[in-house]
Write a structure and sequence with these properties.
The complex is a heterodimer. By secondary structure, chain A is α/β, with parallel strands linked by helices. Helices cover about 20% and strands about 25% of the residues of chain A. Chain B has helices at about 45-60, 100-105, 185-195, 205-210, 220-230, 245-265; strands spanning about 1-5, 30, 40, 60-65, 90-95, 125-130, 140, 145-150, 155-165, 165-170, 200, 235-240, 270, 280. Chain B is globular. Chain B starts with a strand and ends with a strand.
Chain lengths: ~300, ~280
Amino acid sequence: MTPAKPSKMYVTFWGTRGSISTPGRSTEKYGGNTPCVFVQYQDTNIIFDAGTGIRGLGLQLFEELEDRNGHLSLHLFLSHTHWDHIQGFPFFQAAYIKGTELVIYGSSNKGQFLESILSRQMDVDYFPVGLSEMAAEMKIQEMSDETMRLGPVVVDWQEQIFHPGGSVRYRLTAGGKKVAYATDVELDRMFRPEFQDENSDGALRDYLDFIQGVDLLIADGQYTEKEYAEKVDWGHTSIPVILELAERAKVKQLAIFHHDPQHSDKILDSLWHECHAGISDRESGMNVFWAREGMTLAV
Amino acid sequence: MKVKFWGTRGSIPVPGKDTTTYGGNTTCLEITLESGRKIIIDAGTGIRLLGQHLLAEAGKIDIHLLITHIHWDHVQGFPFFDPVYDPESKIKIDGFPTCIKGLSVPFDNKMGDGFFPLKFDDLKAEMSYLDTLNGGPLKVDNAVVDSIPLQHPQGGFGLRFREGKKTLVFLTDNELTEEAWAGRHPEDYVKFCKDADLLIHDAQYTPEELEKRKGWGHSDYVSTLNLGLKANVKKLVLFHHDPSRKDPEVASIKAHCEELARKSNPDMLIDAAKEESELTV
C-alpha cells in the first residue's frame, strides 16, 4: 500500500506513558510505552520524543521503506532529555538505515548538552552500540530561530521552565491547522495561586498564547488533583488544571498524555468517565480524550 | 529457595498485547531463601512492581541486590524502586564491580545532566556496597552465591545460588560461543551449571538470528539447550526474550527445545520465563 498523500496532519501515538514503561495486561488499552508521537503531513515526517514507543515507529517506517521510495527523511523534536523521552532512541531502527536523513532538535539552553546526553546514553558501558555507529545521516541541531519551516509545516517552540531541568513545547501549523505538543510541564505551578511564584504569571500568559485555538493539544495530565498534592515540583500537571486551561484557550481537541505508571486502563477509563460526567456543563464543546497507543487522528 | 520473575525481557521493555503472557519488563528476579531473606537480581523495569510488592508485603526492607552488569536494561528500573526512597530500607548491593556506577548513572548527579530528576545522594535508603562477589563467594544466611564472568560486551557476572542441597544458576547476557573473547569456553559454563536443579539462561535468539548477531553477547536457544543438557540440569528456563518476540513465538521456541531434548534427556524440564511466575527449587 502506498501511503496516501495526506492533506491533513496525521498524528499517531506510539508511546503515551510517563516516567517508565509499564508492560502488562493492565495497560494494554492505553499503552505502556514512554512518549513518542508521529506527525505526518504530506512528505514531512515529524516525531516528538524518543521514548520506548519510537521502537515500534522505527519498525513501521522500515516496513514502509519501499512505499517511501527507499528513502526516509525524519525530524525528531525532543521535549527534553529525561530518560523516558530518549530511552527508545538506541532501538530506533530507522536510524540504522543508511541514507536516512535524521535531524534531532532540542533546547539550546544547555550548550552542547543535547549531543552529549544522546552520546552518553549510548556510551559503551551502558549500551553495546555507539551513537556514531548509527548509519543514518544524523544531525543534532539545537533550536535557534523562534519559527522554523519544514516544507509546508511551520514549527514554533517555547521553553517550559516549570519542569526539573526545563523542557520545550512545540506547535505545528500546516494546512490551516495547528497541533501542539506540550508535555512535562507543571501547569499547576503557573495557575494555582497556592503554588505560584514570581515567574508564574508570565509563564501562564505565554502558555495560553501558545496553545490558543489549536486544533489538537497533546498535554501532560499525569495526576489527579489528589495525586498532585503529593507530587508538587515533580514537573507534571493535574488533570483539572489542564482541562481548565485548554478550555480557556479554546483548544478544540485535548489529548491527555504522559499517563502515570500507576494508572491502569481501569483507572484511566474512570478518569475519562469522571471528566465526561461534568462535560455537559461546559459550553466550549472541547473534545477531551486520554491518548491511547496506536491511535491515529487526522487534523 | 524460590525464584519469582518480575522482568524477563531483553534489551528494552515491550508493552502491549503481544507480550502479556511472557512479559514485557526488563530483567528483575526475586529470590527467596529458606530463611525468608530476599535477594533481588538486576534492576530492569520489573523492579518497579517488585518494590511496591515488597513494601506492601513486608513493610521494612532488608534485602540484597545483585547486579549482573550495567547495560541499561539491567539498571533502568532502579529510580522507580520505591524502597530506595524509604529511610527504613536496608539494601546491600553486590555483583559486577561497576554496579554502583550503573545504578547511579540514571540520576541527576550534576545539576541538569541526568536522565532522571533526582540525585543519587538524595535516595533515603541505607545502601551499602559489599564488594564481595568480585573476590569470592558471598554468604547470605545459609546460602552461598558465587559468580562466573559472562561472555558479553563490557562483561558481567553469572550467578550460582546454593542452599542446602539445592542449586540455582542464573546466566543472562551470555553468549555461548567457541570463539570466546575473554578466554572462556562453553565447557566452563557446563562446569558452573553442573547438576543444577534450575538453570535460567539467556536464549534471546534463534540460531538463524544469531548468525547476524555474533559478538552481541547473547545466546541462541539451541546453544542454551545444549548447555542445559551437557550440564545435566533438572530444569532449564529460557530467559531474556528478544523484544521482537511475540508470546506465541516464545511458546514455540520452548516447544522446539522440548522436542530437541526428548532425544537425549527426556527428563529435563524446559520452560520459558514468564513474568509474575514463581518456581520452587
